[in-house]
Amino acid sequence: MAKTKPSDPKIASLLQEGSLNPHPEEVADPLFASSDFFDSRDLVQVKYEMVRRVRIDGEPVSQSAAAFGFSRPSFYQAQAALEREGLPGLVPKKRGPRRAHKLGKEVMDFIQEQLSADSSLSASELTQQVQQRFEIQVHPRSVERALARHKKKQC
Questions:
Q1: For the chain, what is the domain count?
Q2: For 41-53, what is each residue's pLDDT tens digit?
Q3: Does one domain contain both 61 and 125?
Q4: What range does the domain containing 46 cover?
């Protein structure tokens, strides 16, 4: 099923940047209901205003977090991210591993060695050999992607 592009350019931009608030309906703050400037769909703006309310206006953390649709722990995470990185710290980070952490140099050398000995080995067979040798589980698709990256580097 193909994904359709949002018709609203702001939603498309927020979605592309990863800062579209997944629950804008939970923002109960009056400013976000009565102003064109404040947009409950903008996650960075919502988090910033939540932290600002506590820091500048002296609003209690629990009250501010609830008004903006967040938990207290989420408030403290946003506050720490803002102090550490400024506004960019409020943009959600991609989740999960950033690279093929299981398929390091030693494992890839082993895979290349196995392929040199028998080029007909499938990714599934290679994952079984990796599991036996290194006692780690990897998905066959991860092996395929790692081999493609390795091949691309050689070209």
A1: 2
A2: 999 999 999 999 9
A3: no
A4: 9-90
Same domain, 20 and 71: yes
CA of 44: how far to CAs of 15, 38, 49, 73, 119, in Å? 12, 11, 9, 17, 50
| pLDDT digit string, tens, across residues 124-149 | 999 999 999 999 999 999 999 999 98
pLDDT score for 3: 56
Co-location of 20 and 75 in the same domain: yes
Whole-angstrom distance, CA of residue 128 vs CA of residue 125: 5
CA distance linking residue 150 with residue 54, whole number of Å: 50
Mean pLDDT lowest among 6-15, 17-26, 32-41, 124-133? 6-15
Both 74 and 20 in one domain: the answer is yes
Residue 90 has pLDDT above 50, yes or no: yes
The secondary structure of 92-107 as a DSSP string is PPPPS-SS-SSS-HHH
**What pLDDT is stored for residue 5 in this prediction?**
63
Calpha distance 13→20 (Å, rounded): 8
3-state class percentages of the chain: helix first, strand second, coil last, to nearest 5: 60, 0, 35
For 136, the 3-state DSSP assignment is coil
Look at residues 90, 121, 137 and tell me which one is the last residue of a structural domain.
90
| Domain end marker among 62, 90, 118 | 90
